[in-house]
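Human:
Focus on the backbone:
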Amino acid sequence: MGQNYGLGRGLSSLIPQKKISRDDNQVKTDFDFSKVKSLESAEDQPLEKKEETSVLAQGILEVELEKIKANPYQPRTDFDQDKLKELANSIKEHGILQPLVVTQNGDDYELIAGERRLQASKLAKLEKVPVIVKDVKEKEKLELAIIENIQRHNLNPIEEAQSFQQLMDEFQMNQEEVAQKMGKNRSVVANKVRLLKLPVEAMRALKEGVISEGHAKAILSLENQEKQ
C-alpha cells in the first residue's frame, strides 16, 4: 500500500476535500465560441464621438473654445498684444487658472467675463477651456462685463469713462450709485465722466497715451474758462 499523503484527520475535518471525477481532467468542449465573434465585432465598432463638453469640477465645465462667442457688451476695445502673448505663454505652461464666465446661448456660449483669457487661449491654440455657466439677462451681461473689466484690468481713461456712462444710461444709475457699485468715490466717477466732454482729438490722444489724464483735465479747465 502506498503512503497516504492526504490531510490528517484534524485538518481534514476543517478543510473539506473535493472529490475529483474523471471528467475534471478532460478539456471541456461546450464553450460558446460565438461570444468570441461578438467581442471581436465590438472592438471593430468606431469609438463614440468625443464629448464637446465635460465636467472638470463642481460648477466648472470644459467646453470647446470655438463654441464661445465674444460678449457684445465688452467695454474694452483695445488689447495690448504683447501682454496677450505673455498670457498665452503662461496658459500654455500652466493652463487657465481661473475659468471664464459664460452664459448658454443655444448650442453655443456667450462670454460674460474673461475676454483677455479668451483671446490668449486662442493665441495658445487651446481646443477646450474651463468655464462657469451663469444664467443671466442681457443687461446683467453688460453690468458683469463692465465690472469685471474695471476691477481686473486697466482700461484706458476714456474706456473707463465710457463704461461708467454706459452703466448710468443702461441702468438709470446716478454717479453716486455707480461709485458704490464700483467701490469708488463719487468724485472719481464724476471726473472720469467729464473726460467724455474733451474734444475728439484730445480724447484720442488720451486713449492712445499721448497725453496724461492730468493734461486732459487741464484742457477741460481751459475750455471752461474760454466759455466763461
